[in-house]
User: Which sequence fits this backbone?
């Protein structure tokens, strides 16, 4: 069964350092999402891509976070500089299309700890 | 603005008993509703969705959910719980006036005791 791949699974970084996460969606999925999940809360959308274009980044802290999906396939989420409050699970998901009725398929996530 | 509430942080049920995990929502337009399950240190897995049509939706692993428009609810149910159903459950909503953004609830932890 096809899966969304994410790496690394775990990352520990010092505050003020840069950190990057990678996601490879299910083949053929045009829509890609990055979510942040703080312990005890539901996922919060950071950025949504349709192919290589950003369609929603309203909750992305753009002073320190950036995301790209250059060829409309895999994607990278970067944080620079990392802050203690960025410690969370970062989830990537993809869906076949941008329609209202399409469910998302999630990767296993990257657990970030900022020390 | 759309929102979703899961009023129970945790639900405890004995194996073999029916289970219900509650979800209520608020949207401006027509709701599109989803349930996902999350096991420890894993991503979310899709269980079922309501788009239109029958108010009772059947999904994976024997789960079903009932859409109630007048009560703006979409409760997740299973007739007979298994210990392996113990996990974190998330309700999510989109509406057709707010773009394609999906809002997740805070989650409900289900604990099934043998």
Assistant:
């Amino acid at each position: 069964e096809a899966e969304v791949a994410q790496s690394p699974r775990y990352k520990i970084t010092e505050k003020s350092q840069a950190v990057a996460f990678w996601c490879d969606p299910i083949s053929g999925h045009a829509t890609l999402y990055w979510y942040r999940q703080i312990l005890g809360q539901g996922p919060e959308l950071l950025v949504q891509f349709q192919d290589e274009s950003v369609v929603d980044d309203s909750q992305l802290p753009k002073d320190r976070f950036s995301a790209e999906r250059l060829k409309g396939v895999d994607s990278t989420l970067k944080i620079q500089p990392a802050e203690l409050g960025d410690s969370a699970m970062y989830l990537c998901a993809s869906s076949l299309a941008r329609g209202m009725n399409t469910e998302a398929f999630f990767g296993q996530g990257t657990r970030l700890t900022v020390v | 603005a759309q929102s979703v509430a899961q009023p129970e942080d945790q639900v405890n049920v004995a194996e073999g008993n029916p289970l219900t995990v509650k979800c209520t929502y608020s949207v401006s337009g027509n709701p599109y509703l989803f349930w996902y399950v999350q096991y420890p240190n894993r991503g979310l897995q899709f269980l079922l969705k309501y788009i239109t049509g029958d108010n009772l939706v059947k999904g994976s692993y024997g789960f079903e959910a009932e859409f109630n428009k007048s009560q703006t609810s979409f409760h997740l149910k299973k007739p007979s719980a298994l210990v392996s159903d113990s996990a974190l459950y998330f309700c999510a909503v989109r509406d057709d006036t707010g773009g394609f953004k999906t809002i997740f609830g805070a989650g409900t932890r289900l604990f099934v005791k043998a």
About this structure: The first strand of chain B starts at residue 3 and ends at 5. The radius of gyration of chain B is 14 Å. Residues 35 and 91 of chain B are 5 Å apart (CA to CA).
